[in-house]
Amino acid sequence: MALRARGIHSIIGGEGESSKKTARQCSIILLLLLVCPRAVNSYSYDPFDPNGNITIKWDLMQLTDSGYVAMVDINNYQLFRHVERPGWKLKWEWPGDEVIWDIRGAEASEQGNCSKYKGQLPHCCLKWPVVVDLLPGTPYNYQVRNCCKAGVLSSITQGPSSSAASFQIDVGNIRYGKKHEVLRPRNFALGLHGYTCGEAIDSDPTKFLSGDKRRKTQALHTWKVTCSYSQFIASASPSCCVSLSTFYSSTIVECPHCSCGCPDGPSAVKFLQFPNDGDSPPPFVRCTQHMCPIQIHWHVKVSYREYWRVKVTVTNYNLVHNYSEWNLVVNHPNLERLTQVFSFEHEYLRNYGPINDTAMFWGIPYYNDVLLQYGESGNVQTEMLLRKDPAAFTFKAGWTFPRRIMFNGEDCVMPPRTSTPAPQLLLWRRRRHHNQGGSGLSPPPRPPLARCLRNLLSCSQLRDNLRRTAYKCLDFSIMPFNPVTCP
Ligand SMILES: *[C@@H]1O[C@H](CO)[C@@H](O)[C@H](O)[C@H]1NC(C)=O
Ligand SMILES: *[C@@H]1O[C@H](CO)[C@@H](O)[C@H](O)[C@H]1NC(C)=O
Ligand SMILES: *[C@@H]1O[C@H](CO)[C@@H](O)[C@H](O)[C@H]1NC(C)=O
Ligand SMILES: *[C@@H]1O[C@H](CO)[C@@H](O)[C@H](O)[C@H]1NC(C)=O
C-alpha cells in the first residue's frame, strides 16, 4: 500500500515537491483506511464472482526415459476479469534439477545455463522457468490445440472458447520422491498483477475423448493450481469513477474529486504516473478533477409512461492504453426489467439464485470491443430501455442510479449517495423564470467541463465579476501552455 503510494509521482515537478506530495497522499490514504475500514474488506472478496479463479492444470501424459511429457492448461474461470496483452507469464520452481527439453504452444523466455549438456541442448535449464505464450500465426509444427493467443485470456462470459490456453512440455532429468512418485513443480505465479497462486494439488485424472467420441483415455496424473485475484493486492488506488446526471435536473454530479489521485497544484503535475508493473506501459492519465483513467457517466435520459431510458458513456482518459475486451458490471435493482440494450452485448450475473439485478455489458466484436486511448474516439456508449416496476420505480432519492459499477472487474468510485440529483426540474425552471425577470442572482448551470477539456491539459475553476463559473485551462495543443478560458 505504502509502496504503491510512494510510486505515484509526477513526471514534471521537482524531487522535493514530489516527496511532500507523497507524504500527503499517504496520509490521505491512511485517513481513508481509518475512516472507512469497510473499503479494505470489500476488495478481498467479490460477491459478484465468488468462485472466480484462474486454474492451471498439469496433466502427465506420458513418462519418458528421463522424465515426462505434460499438457498444461490455463483456464480463466472468472466471470468478468480477463487478461490483456502482454498476457500471462507462467513461472514455477522445479523441485530438483529438471530441464525443459521441448515445448510446443509456448516458450521459455530465457534458456539459462545449459553448459552441463552436450550435443542437443535443452530448451530451458532454469530452476525458475518463465513460460510465455506464442503469438497467433505461429508455424503449425510449434502449435498445440488451443494455443498461441499472445497470453490473452478472455473472461468466461465474454469468450468461453478463448478463456483458456494450453502448451505441451517435455521435461527431463526429473527427480522421484521417496515412494517413487514424480515430484511436482511448486511456487507457481501467473506474472499478472493482483493474482496469487496456491500449491499444486492432486486432482482426478483428466479424461480425453477420442476423435470419434467412442473411447476415453486419461492422464497418468493430474495436478491443479488455483490462482485468485485480489483488487486490494493489485492496486491500492481505484482506476475508475462514476458521474451522474438526469433529464430532470440541471445538476451534474461529477466524479468525486481526486477519486483516483489528485491533480496537485496549479502548474506542477500534468499527468499522474503510476508505478510501472511489468511490461505494460504505466497509465498516463489525462488531467481531470478525478484523475481516473476511466470515467463512467450514467445519464437518465427519458421517462416514458411504461419505460425509462438511460445512456451510459465510458470515457478513456488513459493516453497510452487501448482497453481490448473491456467490460462493465452494473448493479441496479431495475436491471431485472431490462428490455433493450443498444450497441453493447449483455448477460446477467447470477450468483444468488435467479436475481437479475446485476448484469455485465461488453462491446460488440469488431465494432466497439476496444476502448481506444484518450481522444476523439476514446469512448464507448450505450442506451438501455428498462421497464418501470410500478411498485418500486421512483425518481426520488437517486433510485434511477446504479448501486455499484465495475470496469474490467475493478470497483469504480461512486459519488456519495447524498449527492444524487434530486428531482428539482420545477425549482430550476422557476429560478430561470425568476432570472429572466432581471434579478440575476442565481448562477447559471456550470459549463460542461467535459467539452471544455477536450484539448486541455489542466483546468481550474474561476468566478468572474458576475459570479459566473468558468474554467481557466491550459491548452494541450498549444506549446508552451497558454491559458484559455472556456467554454
Ligand atoms: C475455481 O473455479 C472453478 C470454476 O468456477 C470452480 O469449480 C472451482 O471450485 C474454483 N476453485 C476454487 C479453489 O475456488
Ligand atoms: C553454468 O553451470 C556450470 C555447472 O553446471 C557452472 O560450472 C558454471 O559456472 C555456470 N556458468 C555460469 C555463467 O553461471
Ligand atoms: C490504440 O489504437 C489506435 C487505433 O487503432 C492506434 O492508433 C494506437 O496506436 C493504439 N494505442 C496503443 C497504445 O496501442
Ligand atoms: C433472469 O433472466 C433470465 C434470462 O437471462 C430469465 O430466464 C429469468 O427468468 C430471469 N429471472 C427473473 C427473476 O427475472
TrEMBL record:
InterPro entries: COB_C, COBRA_pln. Transmembrane segments: none annotated. The keyword rRNA processing does not apply. Pfam families: COB_C, COBRA. Coiled coil: none annotated. It comes from the Eukaryota. One of its GO terms (biological process) is cellulose microfibril organization. The keyword Chloroplast does not apply. Residues 239-263, 281-416 form the COBRA C-terminal domain. Residues 1-42 form the signal peptide. One of its GO terms (cellular component) is plasma membrane. Keywords: Glycoprotein, Signal. Belongs to the COBRA family. This is COBRA-like protein. It comes from Spirodela intermedia (Intermediate duckweed). The lineage of its organism: Eukaryota, Viridiplantae, Streptophyta, Embryophyta, Tracheophyta.
